[in-house]
Amino acid sequence: MTTATAEHLRHSVWTTYVFSTDHKTIAKQYLAQGLFWIVVGGLLAGAMRWQLAWPDTKVPLLGEIGPEVYNMLVTMHGTIMVFFVAMPILLGAFGNFLIPLMIGARDMVFPRLNMLSVWTFALASLVMLASFFVPGGAASAGWTGYPPVSAKPVYTGVTWGINLWILGLALEFASFLMGGVNYLTTAIVLRAPGMTLARVPLVVWQQLTAAALFLLSVGPLIAGAVMLLMDRTLGTGFFSPELGGDPLLWQHLFWFFGHPEVYVVLLPALGFVLEVLPVFSRKPIFGYRWIIGATVVAAALSFIVWAHHMFISGMDPRLAMPFSVTTILISVPFAYLIFAMIATLWRGSIRFDVPMLWALGFLTMFIGGGLTGIFNGSAPADIYLSGTYFIVAHFHYTLFSTVFFGGFAGVYYWFPKMFGRVLHGGLGHAHFWLTLVFFNVTFFPMHHLGLAGMVRRIANPLQYDALVPHQWINVLATYGTLCLLAAQIPFAINILWSWLAGAPAANNPWNATTLEWAAPSPPPHLNWGARVPTVHRGAYEYSVPGEPLDWLSQDSAPPARTETGSPR
Amino acid sequence: MIAHVEIPGLPAGIAPGKVAVWWFLASEIMVFGGLIATYIVFRLGGSGWAEASHHLNVTLATVNTLVLLTSSYTVVQAFVAAERRDARAVRGHLALTILGGFIFLGLKAVEYTTEIRAGFTPGTGIFWSFYYMMTGLHALHVIGGIVVNGAVLATEGVSVRHPHRVELAGLYWHFVDVVWIFLFPLLYLA
Amino acid sequence: MLNWLRWLPENVSTYGADVDAIIALIWYTTVVWLFLTFGAIGLFLVLYRRRAGRPAAYVKGERLGEALWVLVPVAVVLVLDLWLDFSGAPVWAKVKIERPAAALSIQVTGKQFTWEMLYPGPDGRFGTADDRLFLDELHVPVNRAIRVVLRSKDVVHSFFLPNFRLKQDMVPGREIEGWFQATKPGKYELPCAQLCGFGHSGMKAYLYVHPQDEYDRWIREQWS
After folding, report:
1. pLDDT tens, residue order, chain B (190 aa)
2. Is residue A8 part of a domain?
3. Most buried pick, A91, A499, B120, C100, via CB within 10 A?
4. Cβ-contact B38, A211 below 8 angstroms
5. Which one of A157, A247, A286 has the shortest CB-CB distance to C59?
6. Do C155 and A155 touch (CB under 8 A)?
7. For chain C, what are the domain ranges?
8. Would you call C14 exposed, middle or buried from its count of C-beta atoms within 10 A (0-12, 13-18, 19+)?
9. Which CATH code is given to the segment(s) C104-222?
10. ipTM above 0.90 for this complex
């Protein structure tokens, strides 16, 4: 028990729903904020695509978008999706909800620090929102914020917008640093009896690796962000050559963080898929220990690949081959993860419930994104492909798979546990298939646009002779985007309707083995009743030969001894 | 907050607070590490840095270094006193540690004022940009440390019952000291 | 839509074919992997659909015998990837590291939002009276190696010649050299490939590649 029980009986509406220290409520607060921002980020994308398909016409709700506003849309779309959608939903919401439940704890080790982290995130959100409405408009130097264009207000015309962008990101970093410390400490010290590290479910391992990765990689960017703010406001010259500085310094600091960051976003969603695949194949995950090893190796390698984002940046060209080699090496653990997921399907007993569809969608679409990564990691190929729509296609195939396909696998799978209600299956199927189709309609042809030489961050493709004959692709991608946005409506209806009036969910609707399914749906405050569970086995005991049921929960009666006398 | 947790099969008594503070310090090491590495790379590649650093006040900075080292010693004494349940000694040593922090900030303020009056602002040149940034960020962390030590001092009743609180505050304070040990030679002596 | 390689614009540069060869090599390799993985997934989803009376196999994949089924393909991935990478090394070196003696050097300076092309003139030296500045147009003779000295007056721009498979960022405070040799006369677009402000969209120049005699005529006209 963390604190005296009497204290918890005196809860008001404020302390239950607003200023709560319960990890499950905090998770929902992260989820709600992430869902708000996904609407904003999606609408920004819709506006961008409208402008690209029909340049210099009136975009609905916004009117005519000039190039200044277009740069703001691009910048804020990227920033919001990575830092205000992916991280709060995948890491903040699910990390908070799942970690204590899946290790058999009653809450996080530092519940008040947890509350502080979600409120810091809320403050970061407010600062980001404010940046849209200040004079000069929102940040417009790309989510990558390269100086000098970002360091001197005169180059963009944006003053407060970029300053607030920096401050908003700093607060977001602080929020996730606090959260990360909480996750890592909780997983070390609060595991239930019998929950050895070798029995911890993979999604928890992924959350912890992501948290540690964020913690260790964000430092140099924090240093860089302070430098950028000082350049903008105090006249320092970290990134100004005339004062002795170097624009490439920012790029190194940014990407040193930036590459690990994409794995910070990927790993939690990968974790969801690694949980869903065994449940709906009724088979253990293939290679549990190897998967943990591969994940840690990939995370470690992510610190030494960063300059593959900088092949043609002006850095010493002799650095290109070393970074190409490290980039190739990082494809090895990821190849393992993909093949292990495919091997999990082999000789399974596969059901196509909605969470499984999303997991399979992740697997296939992420393979697509991973394969185009091989093009980009080759330095000579990247001479041509860097800065084009080929890169945009690559990172949308990887990131969209992660956030949407992986994220929705998690949402549909754990919604019954989180909210005690069942999501409507038909709407779920519609949501999945429409998203899958229109995602590909939108992003697959962008590979072709990139190969044809379309550069990024331009507001009007018709200004380029080479792109005029390919404008139909831009129009197609825009229709795809609008349909993709519309495809989220079944989900919006589903989640609201089911949350308010859906059928009540059983404790364990999916017959899964991990500990959270042993608690009620939703779990009460402090999760477990009189005593926390005791764990007797690993997390993937499905279709164990000789057992009457095709699943064995981690906490059910101690295992039968095998013939050799050793327990499983 | 949990003081100590027993986990079956694990070494007795892992303090969650300590684990948390070490993870926090790991991230801080990356912030200052990144800064220091950047400074070194720039310094090696550029010219005029040694000349610029001659304008710094090595004497004041040396005194500051000794002040911080002494305050790291006093914070350890505060922890030892807390384990001995000696409330008066805890109060005394924490107060000395905080005083050390204030002296450091005071001397730093004197340095900054002198330098700015002499015309060396953050925008004067790349050395000065780094100098103000690194020492400024460090000073913010010193302020943070004073606040933490102050909180431990203000709740000294609790601290004496739970000496690990003093230990954790001391851990952070040592980190702040160690960062200065790197900054001092890199900025003032090189 | 299926053959990605046909979407690359016409290549008119000497090393362009080498870059295209690397892109093609990677494309063929990745297409094979795509078919293998999607094929396996599709096959397993069909073969191992839930069927009454047929439970799943209790395979954990941790014993070496089982793990090899995955480790061997992973090793193949590693070998192929390294091969692709090392095949690319000489191409990278050709474009970015080795530079042939150039018949002509031109200073290209990016500035929000124009391309300034400075020719050294008949004396072949920059900074003399016969230098001539052109805006948004670059003229070169065909079949001669051309050196471009890339600079920037303000922010990071990027020199991109799609038809030559050449791209290089232009960083203020640095002079970065690039080179190319055209194989065919024509007019080729030169877009800026790095976000440089609100005028980034549309910031482009044209490269005019002339047959030698036409180029000589152009020189005489400009410096008469």
Report:
1. 444 555 554 455 678 899 999 999 999 999 999 999 999 999 888 777 888 888 999 999 999 999 999 999 999 999 999 999 998 999 999 999 999 999 999 999 999 999 999 999 999 989 999 999 999 999 999 999 999 999 999 987 787 788 889 999 999 999 999 999 999 999 998 7
2. no
3. A91
4. no
5. A286
6. yes
7. 4-97, 104-222
8. middle
9. 2.60.40.420
10. yes
